[in-house]
Amino acid sequence: MAGVIRRLDEAVVNRIAAGEVIQRPANAIKEMIENCLDAKSTNIQVTVKEGGLKMIQIQDNGTGIRKEDMEIVCERFTTSKLQTFEDLSSIATYGFRGEALASISHVAHVTITTKTADAKCAYRASYSDGRPKAPPKPCAGNQGTQITVEDLFYNITTRRKALKNPSEEYSKIVEVVSRYAIHNSGKSFTVKKQGELVADVKTLPNATILDNIRVVFGVNVSRELIEVGCEDQKLAFKLYGYVSNANYSVKKCILILFINHRLVESTALKKAIETVYAAYLPKNTHPFLYLSLEIAPHNIDVNVHPTKHEVHFLHEDCIIESIQKHVESKLLGSNSSRTYFTQTLLPGLPASTSDLKASGPSPSHEAGERVYAHQMVRTDSKAQKLDAFLQPIAKAPPASSSSSSSSSSSAPSAARPSGGATGACGSAELGDEEMLDALAEVEPKEAEKMETSAVGAEAEAGGEAEGEGEGEAAPRKRPRVNKEEELTAGATPKRRVIKLTSVRELREEVTEKNHKGLQEMLQNLAFVGCVNPRWSLVQHHTKLYLLNTSKLSEELFYQILIYDFGNFGVLRLSSPAPLYELAMLALDSEESGWSEDDGPKEGLAEFIVDFLRKKTEMLEDYFSVEIDGEGNLTGLPLLLDRYVPAMEGLPMFILRLATEVNWENEKDCFRDFSRECARFYSVRKEYTLDSDTQPQVTLTPSNTHHT
């Protein structure tokens, strides 16, 4: 048998509709706050008891309600903001349906006290099911309206039982009031529990949006905000707001979105902006966003949801894309540095290890002070460390001079001569495009512009090395005639002053070609690790860089040769290396480019030996390259303590000394020799072994390779 269709009683219809509009106490307060704002209120006070279920009282200083209108003020579809349906296309107020007070009066006991500017007194009336219980009575009162809602959902038992946690409901009320307080700067909002003297949220009438954000969310949020704003005449929208920069993140995204001054939600806009932040914030963290979007009223439909927390508007995809691009441009410009705030210790209080804000091992830490894993930048105490993949290095005895710390004990560390200092730097960080442009300029000159302050410091003040070699290849020191008491970085006992014009000009060339940005990066980088023999990974401020270890080490050794000219120690070979056999080995390799047109290899090798023997005195005096009377190579310059170049490159080094160096001009000779020597000493992939053990260097007349 078919069911009978009946017309529902009006009380049932109104109660069902009220349940859709007023879902919880926060919805009721939202509707009443919007009525207060429509009434041009500048001071809104909200008082709540038991999370709004027992009592809600909201008072404003707006225009008030006329006595003649109080009889129908709580009836459905009664409003002063709309007359025809066409008015919806240009609606500029929060309310338009006239359902807010009607819905509340059907699920609670409502009392309204109101006074207009021209009325002699205030009037009070109580309402139930949309109708007044008695005619309005005159009473004392201030201009504006006070609405008291008691026993919310008293007649909807299921809804009231579902909202059994007053604390949770009160937090949602505070959230709603706070968001309207942030957006409506110039108006005072107060929300508190009944009986409490101190308000949970209180904003001032002369406060700005940023001040209100600081009051509601704290100073940690407000100081990390970027102002955003854009306008598009074609799409007919205007955006204004504040978004957090890359320094700030929270576990849950906070989006305060107002469209035409109406608090709404937009899942599409939220996802679009979070996609932008994914490239800047750590995984599973989110930004803070306050956005106020103004769209032409004829392009927006506000009548799509009973609680009006959703709206639809034209060109939604285009507007969201435009906002996304604007926010991304603001973030890109604000990512040049990261800021870390520390608290100043009170006088007389000892510093504890828990107060440390270290971003990595730095010279400021004492030797005995422990730096915990969670205090380092880019370190998770639960994650695997790079240390697990590296061999432990035995600690060297303490040096008598701090300058010896600038020397490195391995080839990869030689690629970072000025990387001893870590942590934040006061100077501005290079942008990505500027850094790439600088590197592009360096490439043709083989990194001539990469000035390392460590080498410059050694040239000015010199440094003292330990002077202890490994095994049988221990370097011996040769006394030099000196006029200063300073020590050299090459571990020569006493430094002599070189006043040659050509050397001075070569040093000036290095200084003139110095790139300040790259120099600053090398001075303040934090070494992360070696990717392979050619590439090293370093961190500078908030960015990671791949350094070409080969070119960087070559430039390091070139500058050492120029700045420590004539002040090198001697790296003794365990066995003399015949120049003739070295030249023959070089001519046999494809790298030499030898052809039959060049003549027999034996003749060329003899020429090379005779030529270099004529230069023995100059090579030994200026560069510590020692050749004995029999044409054997016995010593090489000691450029870094405990660093031995890859001897596989020695044959080509000898060949190129005779063929690639301009021996006629003094300045060109010193430059070319330093370049060839730096190339030989540099860390090169083809001469680097991947095995864990470092081979011993042994040169014999019949074999000049590693064994």
Give the CA-based shape: rod-shaped
Give the N-terminus to C-terminus distance in angstroms: 102 Å
Mean pLDDT: 75
Estimate the strand proportion. 15-25%
The main β sheet shows up as: 9 strands, mixed
Please give the count of helices. 20
Tell how many strands the DSSP assignment holds: 22
Summing up helix and strand content along with how strands pair, one would put the structural category as alpha+beta
Low-confidence stretches: 352-367, 399-429, 443-492, 691-707
What is the radius of gyration computed over CA atoms, rounded to a whole number of angstroms?
A: 40 Å
Overall helicity: 25-40%
Describe the structure.
This protein is α+β, with helices and mostly antiparallel strands. 31% of the residues lie in helices and 17% in strands. The chain is built from 20 helices and 22 strands. The chain starts with 9 loop residues before the first helix and ends in a 26-residue tail after the last helix. The C terminus is likely disordered.
